[in-house]
Amino acid sequence: MGKRTNPRHFLITWSLLLLETAFGLTSREVNKTLCIEKERDALLEFKRGLNDDFGRLSTWGDEKECCNWKGIECDKRTGHVIVLDLHSEVTCPGHACFAPILTAQFQNLTSLRILDLGNNNLIVKNLVWLSHLSSLEFLRLGGNDFQASNWFREITKVPSLKELDLSVCGLSKFVPSPADLANSSLISLSVLHLCCNEFSTSYEYSWLFNFSTSLTSIDLSNNQLSRQIDDRFGSLMYLEHLNLANNFEVEGGVPSSFENLTRLRYLDMSNTQTYQWLPELFLRLSGSRESLEVLGLNDNSLFGSIVNVTRFSSLKKLYLQKNVLNGFFMERVGQVSSLEYLDLSDNQMRGALPDLALFPSLTELHLGSNQFQGRIPQGIGKLSQLRIFDVSSNRLEGLPESMGKLSNLERFDASYNVLKGTITESHFSNLSSLVDLDLSFNLLTLNTRFDWVPPFQLQFIRLPSCNMGPSFPKWLQTQNNYTLLDISLANISDMLPSWFSNLPPELKILNLSNNHISGRVSEFIVSKQDYMIIDLSSNNFSGHLPLVPANIQIFYLHKNHFSGSISSICRNTIGAATSIDLSRNQFSGEVPDCWMNMSNLAVLNLAYNNFSGKVPLSLGSLTNLEALYIRQNSLRGMLPSFSQCQLLQILDIGGNKLTGRIPAWIGTDLLQLRILSLRSNKFDGSIPSLICQLQFLQILDLSENGLSGKIPQCLNNFTILRQENGTGESMDFKVRYDYIPGSYLYIGDLLIQWKNQESEYKNALLYLKIIDLSSNKLVGGIPKEIAEMRGLRSLNLSRNDLNGTVVEGIGQMKLLESLDLSRNQLSGMIPQGLSNLTFLSVLDLSNNHLSGRIPSSTQLQSFDRSSYSGNAQLCGPPLEECPGYAPPIGRGSNTNPQEHDDEEEFSSLEFYISMVLGFFVTFWGILGCLIVNRSWRTAYFTFLTDMKSWLHMTSRVCFARLKGKLRN
């Protein structure tokens, strides 16, 4: 039987269908959201006034529906524009953005809630249209050409406004009048952005205190605030966020009124020259100890200790780096902190570290560049969330095994400490996240099983001066992703293993220097062309020069046993190279002539090899060259022109067979030159007077050549050598490279005659100021102008044919330590002024024609007879006394020697009696106090113990850092 349909059910179904259809149509109409025509026209009118050269508003006008235009958002129900966001992320240079005059067209956007026109170079002259935007909650006009002097009056006509951004508007020129301030109660501003407005006094921004009952966030960073922080900030009872950073002239510290800020969550006072005792500052923030989450106090002058930072129960981030904190880091036992980020680096904090288990939430802990000492606490193992741990450049001694528990640790830097002992596998047992390990320049020994497989895959391996030898560390074979490997000074004396040729493709920096590694390196260098730094110096590598990688920037193979030609250096275009050192090997043959392809080269050292032939012409095309060392080879011929190398500071070509005259372009074009060494060649002719234009010259060594003629009278033009005070500049070059920010220090050396001994010096220019013209054929007299070089420390004019007298003004050269005028034809008497040279430790006037008596002084009589020998008419101590010489009569009119001796004996007796009594009283006075007063005694011996420890630690740290600087 068929089932009969119920009419009531049919009616209900039909009604529901009609309702669904109606709702569907309505929904589709709502989703379509046609914008209001009046508002669309206002937007197009605004666009027509813009300079939109970059097409940022290219979508405006393409379709009738303005709600789909870029930067526009409409109310889906009414179609009104509620958001207009055209801000630029950075301030536009010149007229690169819109740059029109902001018109009143926006007054038609009456439903607008968010208006963001920041950083567009708009000319803002009048804001009367703001009063029509009755729903506006957010307004950003910062980063424009703000000229609206009535801005405050118009702002107060928008009662719905909650957040206002007028950064970079020059508001210091538009201070609201008292009449305008009377209307401030009409709005309830909550957030104010006033960065970069050139405010210098609180008067210029005092209007903001009229919103004391509503403000929750204020940004006054990057202004020019001076004097003390306004006490009225303490009246802002609802304030949660305050940014005063980068106001370089703020005086004093946090005012006491800040104790009232009980809701403060964020305070940034970094880089404000705040000078305050840190415990006092913490006390003045005690009102926010339960609310404060972020505290930025870095780059100031805060001093004192860090005491109980755990009192701030909600604090998540604390920035205290780059202050002068000079106390201790002390925490109350049992009170746990919620800190996640703590930076105390670049201070002078001392003493032991607190129990780090009090900071279980830390993810980053920066303690570098302080004076912390003792062991890293065992509690470090309880910081399970720690990702970055930096304790570099301190005086820490011990590394606990609990470090191995930090499974989330990504970066660990303990470089430049005095860590000692043995590092075993347990120190790394669970460091599965570690990617950056730096244990540089400590006293550690790394002792692991031969087949140890670390739990990590490192990207940065910095282990210089860690003892890993004598075998090459096999665990490196398990690391497949590192981009930097530094195992220099590691006491490795092994053959380079065959597996080492399979280096990670990401490797950029390789440093195996200062070991005793042997073998050939060509295979693993040739296999990879992406290196930026290779330093294999001071090892026992041998074989031919490997193919230099195309992208290399720093390439050091010095102090090895490489041999053969270096012509392979021309096979790749290594235009990025900045520093190449192949010195102290056994390379031979001619120096290739392909240097024009290395236009960025700043340092080139080919010294102490067996190169022959001529100096290649292409070296003269290196316009960025700062230091060239090619001494102690067998190069011959004339010196090519280096006149294009106008940045050259060191030109060291001594110990070759170069001929010809000294080129004049040295004096006219190499005006930055600080060292000029042409010693031990075959140069002839006279010394060009143009060389006197080198005002920065500190070392001039032209010795052991065939130079003739007179010494130029213009040597007093060497400005640096005339300066009696100060030292020269260092001879290190901070060679730049791209991969890691910073520089790679190159320290050159120099072969010079110093105090009658041929010596090599590193970093010599800090101290040495030398002129050496010895062993030539120079004639004539010594120019009197040479005495004007009062900064000179060594003068050697020996083994020439100079005549005349020793210049009278030589006594003005107060810093002179070495003077050699031997084996010339000098005559006359030794100037009395020579006796005034108190630093003089080497003197040689032998084999001349000097005459008369040697001037009397403690200094001149202390030299050996050989310093004056070969001068037949010279007499007086230390030579034989001059004939007929009578010593001067004693003091005063006292002619009775016995009486004079009695007076001296009586004076001496009184002196010794006084000295004994003084010592007795002082000694027993101090010792008696120490015996009677127990607390003084304890403090005194504690001081002595601490002083001993400090001296010990300081010497160890200095030694470790010195090794680091000299590792190249």
Strand content: 15-25%
In helices, the fraction of residues equals 10-25%
Task: Give the biggest sheet.
Answer: 31 strands, mixed
- Structure annotation, total helices: 10
Low-confidence stretches: 1-5, 7-31, 891-907
Q: Please write the CATH class name of the domain at 31-180.
A: Alpha Beta
Number of strands: 60
Tell me which CATH architecture of the domain at 31-180 applies here. Answer: Alpha-Beta Horseshoe
Mean pLDDT: 85
Q: Could you tell me how far the N terminus lies from the C terminus, measured between alpha carbons in angstroms?
A: 106 Å
Output the CATH topology of the domain at 31-180: Leucine-rich repeat, LRR (right-handed beta-alpha superhelix)
Rg, Cα atoms, Å: 40 Å
The backbone outline, from C-alpha atoms, is globular
**What structural class should be given to the helix and strand makeup?**
alpha/beta
CATH superfamily of the domain at 31-180: Ribonuclease Inhibitor
Domain Leucine-rich repeat-containing N-terminal plant-type: 38-75
GO cellular component, one term: plasma membrane
Family: Belongs to the RLP family.
Protein name: Leucine-rich repeat-containing N-terminal plant-type domain-containing protein
Could you outline the blueprint of secondary structure elements for this entry?
Blueprint: H1 7-32, H2 37-48, E1 72-74, E2 81-85, E3 114-116, E4 123-124, E5 138-140, E6 145-146, H3 151-155, E7 163-165, H4 178-181, E8 191-193, E9 217-219, E10 226-228, E11 241-243, E12 249-251, E13 266-268, H5 278-284, E14 294-296, E15 306-307, E16 317-319, E17 329-330, E18 341-343, E19 350-351, E20 364-366, E21 371-375, E22 388-390, E23 395-398, E24 411-413, E25 420-423, E26 436-438, E27 443-446, E28 460-462, E29 484-486, E30 509-511, E31 518-520, H6 522-526, E32 533-535, E33 540-543, E34 554-556, E35 561-564, E36 579-581, E37 586-590, E38 603-605, E39 610-614, E40 627-629, E41 634-638, E42 650-652, E43 657-661, H7 665-669, E44 675-677, E45 682-685, E46 699-701, E47 706-710, H8 719-722, E48 732-736, E49 743-747, E50 749-754, E51 757-762, E52 770-772, E53 777-781, E54 794-796, E55 801-804, E56 818-820, E57 825-828, E58 842-844, E59 849-853, E60 873-875, H9 897-932, H10 934-965
Parallel strand pairs: 2-3, 3-5, 4-6, 5-7, 7-8, 8-9, 9-11, 10-12, 11-13, 13-14, 14-16, 15-17, 16-18, 18-20, 19-21, 20-22, 21-23, 22-24, 24-26, 25-27, 26-28, 28-29, 29-30, 30-32, 31-33, 32-34, 33-35, 34-36, 35-37, 36-38, 37-39, 38-40, 39-41, 40-42, 41-43, 42-44, 43-45, 44-46, 45-47, 46-52, ...
Antiparallel strand pairs: 1-2, 48-49, 50-51
